[in-house]
Please model this.
Amino acid sequence: MTPEPGEPKSRYLHYLEILTGSLEEKKRWRQYKARVKRLPDDYRIAVEALERYLMHFGPADGPGAMTMYEDVADLFERSAADGTPIRGIFGDDPVEFVEAFMANYPLGQYRARERARFTSAVARAAGDATPSRDRTQT
Model:
């Protein structure tokens, strides 16, 4: 029922995707979840915790978020195959790890820019000296 790449979608599929979202993204999500399910228990538990965090604080768009989740699966599959301990992946501060991880994705970069913009605006409001380039960003 799904068209081949480059083939136009039927009117039915077009309307269905308007109502339910991209069918391709749903397929990618199911594939990602199957990959996570096959991980050893400790890695799976860690990925599910990371996933929960990303659901709340990570990118919310379909394709960007799916790329990030697929990269999470890649990382944990390789780590499990190499025998890398969970702390070897996350380090001592899991939040620092996930924030640095998210910064590698377009919406994660947006969050970093907005944090810098926010910090700069507060510094200006408080009368702190800030670099001139920050003043032009607001």
The CA atoms of residues 66 and 119 lie 30 Å apart. The chain has one domain: 26-135. Residues 134-138 have pLDDT under 50 and may be disordered.
